[in-house]
Write a structure and sequence with these properties.
The protein has 167 residues and is mainly alpha-helical. The protein has 4 helices and 2 strands. Strands 1-2 form a two-stranded antiparallel ribbon. A hairpin with a 2-residue loop joins β1 and β2. α1 packs across α2.
Length: 167
């Protein structure tokens, strides 16, 4: 069994460990030494046993806090895993039974028929407009004749004073 020298709080200790555990023992000793140095800075000189006890308690407190965080993280992980399983099940169900969405499509033949009807309607509208032009011109002339006649009548009325104005 290897014997290792470690330093904690400016004091040296010789400790035995299993072969291959040396790096872990050195890491643990560094953590304990860090806590012991913090204690001696805050409190000052104290007996070795008290310093080791306080440093050990501080490390135990830090470990307990980390264990609480670990438990909370594990609980959160379980919740996330349950949600993942439910999501995967829903996805598998959706893939097995995909929702069919019908999109209305107008057949090409119907579009062509509408285009032909539109062309016919426009041609009829143009023909009707051409046939109505002489009648519309005659109506326009009649309206112009009436307007001229009304203007002439108004002109005579303006030229001749009314009987009331003569008296």
């Amino acid at each position: 069994m290897p014997q290792i020298e470690i330093s904690i709080g400016s004091r040296t200790f010789e400790v035995a460990c299993q072969p291959g555990e040396e790096p872990y023992l050195h890491a643990a000793a560094r953590m304990l030494d860090t806590e012991a140095e913090a204690l001696s800075t805050q409190i000052g000189r104290m007996p070795e046993t008290r310093m080791l006890l306080m440093a050990g308690l501080m490390l135990a407190d830090r470990t307990a806090g980390l264990e609480d965080k670990l438990r909370a993280s594990e609980a959160h992980l379980q919740t996330v895993e349950k949600r993942l399983v439910a999501t995967e099940a829903a996805l598998g169900k959706a893939r097995a039974n995909p929702e069919i969405v019908e999109v209305p499509v107008i057949p090409k033949s119907l579009i062509d028929s509408f285009a032909e009807l539109t062309a016919r309607a426009e041609a009829l509208a143009e023909r009707a407009a051409i046939e109505d032009e002489p009648e519309a011109a005659a109506e326009d002339e009649t309206v112009e004749d009436k307007t001229d006649a009304e203007a002439a009548t108004d002109g005579k009325a303006a030229a001749e004073p009314s009987e009331a104005a003569r008296a």
